[in-house]
Each structure stands twice: as C-alpha cells, then as structure tokens.
Hints:
about 5% strand, disordered N terminus, 21 helices, two-stranded antiparallel ribbon, mainly alpha
Amino acid sequence: MLIKYFSRNMGLSRVSESESTGAVTDIRKKRRIFTPQFYFFLWCGCIFCQSMLVSGFLNVVLTTIQVEFQLSSAKASLIPSNYDIAAAVAVLFVAHFGSLHKPRTLGLGIITMGAGSLIFALTHFIFGSDNIVAGAGGSLKTHLCEIAPKLDVESDADCLEETMGNSGAYILLTVGSVLIGIGASPVYTVGTTFCDEILPPQKVSVFFGVSYAISAIAPAVGFILGGMFLLVYKTLGEPPQGLTAENANWVGAWWLGFLIAAFLGFVFGSILLLFPSQLPESEEVKQKKLELNIQVENAKEDKTFVDLLKEMLPLLKGIMLNPVYVLYILGGISDSMLISAFSAWLPKMIESQFGVTSSMAAYLFGGVTVPGAAGGIFVSGLIVKWRKLDGLQCLKWQAFIGLICIVSQLTCLIHCPSIRLDGFNSHLNQTCRAAVNSTCQAVCPGRDVYEPVCLKGVTYTSPCAAACTDFNTSTTDFYNCCGSAAIATTGTCDTNCEWLIPFVICLMIMMFFTFLTNVFSLTVILRCVKDSERVVAISVQSIMCRVFGAFPGPIILGAFIDKACILWNTSSCGDRKGACQEYNNSELMTAAVSMAMIARIIGTILYFLGWRLWIRRGGTSPDDGPRYDSVPATGKPESR
C-alpha cells in the first residue's frame, strides 16, 4: 500500500512510449519489480534496521552484556565506540567504490550489518553459560549460612575456561560491532544519493522527510522491544529459584533483538543485490533537474583512488585554512563526545541511581530521548524556516543554546542516596559478623558471589553475609539472620528516593536543548565554506566527529563510572575484576556532570569564537546567507 501511494502521488512517471518496442518491453519487465518506489521502501527498511539496532538495541542492552560477560564499564564502552571507528573508516571506501553500483553497495552493506548483528547474538550461545556469571546460576539457598558449608572451589581448568570464555566473548562482540559499523556506512551515503537520482526533484524533500521520520521512530521501537526482551530470562525458560528481574544478577534475553536485526538485514540486503545499477527514471530525473537549474552528477571518469585523493587535497586545504570551519568542527567534536557518551551509559546511570530494572531503564531512556530529541530537531527546523536564519545567525543561536545546555545539565546532579552496603559504605554489623564467624565458620562466599539481601535497612552481599540459616521457597525471604529471628528480604534495600519523575522531566528538557541545534549545524557547515567545498566539508565533519568525538566519549565516561564503583564482582581466579555491582550514586552523577560540563563549556566557547570571527571576517549574501569567503552560491542546496 505504501508503494502504491508513492507511485500515485509523488509523480513517478514511466519511460516515454517513443522508445523502441524491444527496449520498452525489456524496461517494463524490470520495472515490475525494480521501481523507485520499491527501492525507497527497501532503503527505508535499511534505515529502520540500522537505527533500531544501533540507536536502540545496542544502547539498551550494554549494561546486561556487562553482567553476562563480566565487563567493566571502560572495557564495555569500546563496543559502541568500535562501531563509530569502523563506520568512519568504511565511509571513505564506500564514497569511492560505492558509486559504481549503488544498490548493490547498499545491499552488501546491510548484509554485512546483519552478519555483525548475528555474531552479537551468537556470543550468548557460545559463551553465555551460567558458569561465566558467578553466583547467577544456582539457587539462592546455596548461599545460606550453614555449618561448614561446602563452597565451590574453581580448579585451574575452570579458571582457564572462565578467562577464555570472557576473552572470547569480548572478541566476538568487538568483531560484531565493527561489522555493524562497516555495514551501516552506505545507508546514509550511497543510499541517499541513489534516491536523489531516481526520485522527482519537486517531491524528493517529501521522501526524505519520510525517511527521517522512520529514523526517529526506529530507536523508539528498539527501546520498547529491548525493554521487553530484558524481562525474559536469557535462556527463554524459567530462571533459577529466587532470581527475578530486580536481582543484580538477572540477565535478560538481550540477544533476541540482534537476531531480528540480522534477519531484516539479510532480507533487505538480498533483494537490493538484485537491483540494476541504474533505473530508467534516472535519465528523466536528470533532465528535470537541468530544467530546474539543479546541479546534477556527471558521469564519472575512470579514476583511481589516488587521483581522487589528489583532487581532494586542494579542497581539504581550503576548508582546513578556514578558521570558522575549524572552530565549528572542534565544537562539534565536543558535542559528539557528549552525546555518544550519554547514549551508551545513561540507561546504566538510571538503573543505578533509582534502583529500577534494566527493562524499566530502557523504557525511561527511550521515553526521554525520543520525544526530547525529536522535539528539538522539529523546533530547530521551524526556527530556521520562520526566522529565515542564515549561517551566521544559526551559529549565534547555537552558541547561546549552548549556554542553556550548560545550565540544564546541572539537573543531572539530582540523585538518590546510595544503598547502605554492609562493610563497604556502611559500618560493619559486628553482631552479624560474630554470627557468621561462629555459625558459618567464616567461609561465606567472596566477591565472586553477589546475592544481596536487605535486613533492617542495610544491604548484605549474600544471605550468608547476613548469617541467615533458613530460606522460604514461597516468599524468597530468609530467616534466622544475624544470630536472631530477624527476617531478610531478597534484593537490595529501597532508598525511598522520590526524585525519579523530576529527574526524567529535567532530562527531557536537557535532551530537547541538546538536539535543538541539529538543523543549525548543517546550515552553518553549508554556509561557512565555498560551494565547491561543501561535500568535502560535510564528510570531514562526519569523520572528525566520529573519530575524535563519538569514539572516545563512551570510553571516557565509562572510566569515570568505574571510579564510582564500591563493589566489584571479583573472580575467585586470580582476583580478576568483572562487572561493578554497586556504585556510589553521588560520585557517579558528579563524574557524569563534570564530563558533560567540560565538554559543553569547551564547545560553547568554540562556537562563540567562530561566531565573532565570522562577523569580523565574513560577508553576507542576500540569497544564501553569510559566507566566510563571500562567494555567492551557484545553486541552492537541497534540503536533507
């Protein structure tokens, strides 16, 4: 139905009847399937798959992957960062070789992305046994305080298997993220270009508007599905007795989303491989563009990569000697670092701060990010259109909005108090310790087992640490704790924090202002360089922001998050650190806000410097807005 609608309303005309009978017959046979409408449908499917996978599933399940494979935040942050590096490198080759056969390049890319997603999912089946996550595989009753309890002592062979399993899982996750990055690179490059070649120029902005809407909806679908999958136990069966989604050792079926993305990638990619390199509509669209005085892409000569690189060097020199452009790119790197860092770790921060499940953190993250970001992008477009802002004015708006973002980021200082953890951030309960020493003979599980229980407002790392000797299978409560008749409940103690709703509201406002500069950004880039430098300028901006912003952002914030850890899951094999079990909430939010403030202040200062420099050295064109070099435009840029 969608294909028929676009065919009827978007002006996709057929080939002229004046062509020879044989040619017309051949073309019509192909066009029964390979039409612009069908390509647009497949391209939107690729956008949906890429956005749902990268902006949805990957951000939602990162914390769960940490728990299953016992990864620190600094180490786990390399998984999304590898995607950005792979995409930045791959786009250089896609831009050169992809133009030879655009649909096939897009098809191969989506299949590669599907393969990376499949490898992600296979990591669970190959290395995701209960033996890897210590303490998550057995019944809670096995961690009771008993006379001379028999604790499992891992042999050298078990330790080697555990170490190899975690290392192997990390390698597969890295390979998967790299393949996803490589495969996603053609979606917004050759995929967009081919759409522009086969769709009517008068209607192309409507088509691109639909694609942008899909790219905004897809992450929301990823958040919702990812949250639902995290409520299902990772084996799709019944979890061990007493293990619930509220437990710190819970691992949901995070891999289901990656299987869905892999299936969609293989389906869309396989169909795109069958498309011809050119459609009959291409020549007709080209003629319409010439009539409308829109610049068209000429037939490419057979040039080597070295030849193209030589042609690019003067353009690169021109933009890199443009101080306004350089300052703006440096500011964009700061913003990109901030956005990528919080996209990766905001669900974990919500989970830790407010004691919610990973599934609820996914819903909250999606509920905050999608409407906030979409609202900011939509309003920024309206501002540019209604106020008729030129490049210089857009940069001014972006600089002042940066000041608002600095203030709004202070809302992240809202946090809940940390749980009182016996022996870590709370004084050791000597009564319980005496009971443990006398009853359990001081042989409770170490930090490789974390089965928290709550007793009188204090959280203990295991039932044994609270000297509990009995367990009720129906209520999952523990009895006879601390040498008395005290009752302990499963899970950490509730901090009775009521800051969740104010935090979510403030966070949505912060997201709105963060993405309010989205349309301003493209306008500034297009207006501060020469017309001949626009394509190179946008490409360099994308690569620089990915390599120097999006790549290190999650790693830096992950390292800060690890510093706030108060309880590590330490393996019994050589005291190797795994995932963090509990955080100091105050230190966690202070570290996050500190990074956000530093990045935002640097970016805002750079935007102000660029704005003032543009005023001093730039000119203004009545048609196209101010330009750094005052060169008038030869054609109006397309709205993307």
